Amino acid sequence: MTVLDIQISVEADDWSSEEELLAFSTKVLEATVSYLKDEEQQPFPAMPVELSLVFTDDAAIKEINAEWRNKDKATNVLSFPAFPLEPGGMPGPMLGDIVIAHETVMREALDLEKSFEDHLTHLLVHGCLHLFGYDHMETEEAEEMEGLETRILATLGLSDPYAGQDPL
């Protein structure tokens, strides 16, 4: 059963095709939701919930980051929950939006010596967890969110992205 209705918008040329991004994102995001439902007992509606993905560039995400977070710089991923949700709470019919910038993801992947796909996978999981109410502003929150990310990524065959680092 499909649990997510994923809407995709590709707004920059460097990204793969919409079809490829949809297939890739569906695999990652449904693994994330399945983990939350099965391992974390996350309640979930019987109907699929909608989630929007925007694949863009540094210039566009910089504008969004400045407008919504008062940070005049590009970033890798931004998440915008449709409704406030506490971790473990029941999501509504719309989870929200995730925006990802190609250049920043590519630059970070190179710096981290990871493949672009592995880093994108991590950022999709990270962004999705924000839509479910998880955050990393405080150390305790960061430890919880990073632990979830690590466990979800392991189900996708990826290693701990935070190994050897302090929590965000």
UniProtKB/TrEMBL annotation:
Q: Which cofactor does it need?
A: Zn(2+)
Identify the keywords attached in UniProt to this record, alphabetized: Cytoplasm, Endonuclease, Hydrolase, Metal-binding, Nuclease, Ribosome biogenesis, rRNA processing, Zinc
Cofactor note from UniProt? Binds 1 zinc ion.
Q: Which domain of life is it from?
A: Bacteria
Q: Where does Zn(2+) bind?
A: H126, H130, H136
Q: Where in the cell is it found?
A: Cytoplasm
- InterPro entries, sorted: MetalPrtase_cat_dom_sf_prd, YbeY, YbeY_CS
EC code: 3.1.-.-
Briefly state the protein's biological role: Single strand-specific metallo-endoribonuclease involved in late-stage 70S ribosome quality control and in maturation of the 3' terminus of the 16S rRNA.
Homology family: Belongs to the endoribonuclease YbeY family.
Instruction: Provide the protein name.
Output: Endoribonuclease YbeY
Q: What species was this sequence derived from?
A: Agrobacterium cavarae
